[in-house]
Design goal:
It contains 6 helices and 6 strands, in the order ααβαβαβαβαββ. The protein is α/β, with parallel strands linked by helices and about 190 residues long. Helix 3 crosses helix 4. The chain is globular and about 45 Å long.
Length: about 190
């Protein structure tokens, strides 16, 4: 009987390798942090086809010149918002990159008023301003000492510059508020 239990445990362990355990731990830690408040959720906009950056000649004030959300991206944003609301996660403030794909993702979450914040502008396109934008983002995270959470809708490269994690479209990297180190505590991929 004991040998049988060992065989069953070994087989089951084979279905759940270290990567899956790490992902589950990341998600559990992220949910716990968001439920406790005082954290910053750095979210990459949902699906916007066309590669990195924007087409030549794009303008931040003209969505027609930018990469925009696909139908999948729009649907995923709505689903993520429903999931966050269903989990009881609330945000005291929602900031977004001025790029349309970020503002649209944040609006489609339907979790509150969205404010554009220039320091979360695309560091790929604004590569000559990368250091200043990342420094500004770190300063905003360091100032977040509220009991509620802050949601920041931005670009994958911006999150990578802050945390070294390059998230998937729609992924959330949760960091501690009140610290300029942007220390990740967990990750959520909800779509």
């Amino acid at each position: 009987m004991r040998r049988m239990r060992f065989v069953i445990f070994t087989v089951l362990l084979g279905f759940c390798g270290p990567a899956e355990v790490a992902v589950a731990d990341d998600a559990a830690n992220a949910w716990k942090a968001l439920r406790s408040g005082g954290h910053v959720a750095l979210m990459r906009h949902t699906d916007a086809p066309g590669g990195a950056g924007d087409p030549p000649g794009f303008r931040v004030d003209d969505c027609a010149t930018q990469r925009n959300l696909s139908e999948k991206g729009r649907a995923d944003a709505e689903k993520i918002g429903v999931r966050l609301e269903g989990e009881g996660i609330a945000f005291g403030k929602i900031l977004s990159s001025p790029w349309c794909r970020c503002k649209d993702t944040a609006a489609l979450l339907n979790l509150g008023t969205v404010e554009a914040e220039a320091t979360f502008g695309n560091v790929v396109v604004l590569r000559d301003q990368r250091e200043g934008l990342t420094g500004g983002a770190r300063a905003l995270i360091a100032k977040w000492k509220e009991p509620t959470n802050l949601l920041v809708m931005t670009h994958g490269a911006n999150i990578a510059a802050l945390t070294t994690i390059l998230p998937a479209s729609g992924e959330i990297v949760v960091v501690r508020g009140g610290s300029d180190r942007a220390e990740p505590v967990g990750r959520l991929l909800l779509d």
